[in-house]
Amino acid sequence: MSKMDNLRAMREARYEAAAARAKGTPATRPALAPPVAPLRVVSDDETTPEPVADDELCGHRNMSGRTCTRERGHSAKSHRYS
């Protein structure tokens, strides 16, 4: 067999193996993740943030080791590193 024939045979074998995995029975398929617990209801009293002291920072660290300078529990999606 030539090199191209070998490649074609390997490609067809991979295709057949993938098709066989896709047709798998439900018992052979991986189990789905368990359902997530429902979210709890937040009352109006719990939505107001507590006052934060100036020295309490978020403290989130990025990959280079810098820490976030925003206040702890900030609602912003991004962090400010210094």
UniProtKB/TrEMBL annotation:
Disordered as annotated region, ranges: 20-82
* Comp. bias regions, Acidic residues: 44-56
Q: List, as start-end ranges, the regions of compositional bias called Low complexity.
A: 20-31
Superkingdom assignment: Bacteria
Protein name as catalogued: Uncharacterized protein
**From which organism does this entry originate?**
Nocardioides islandensis
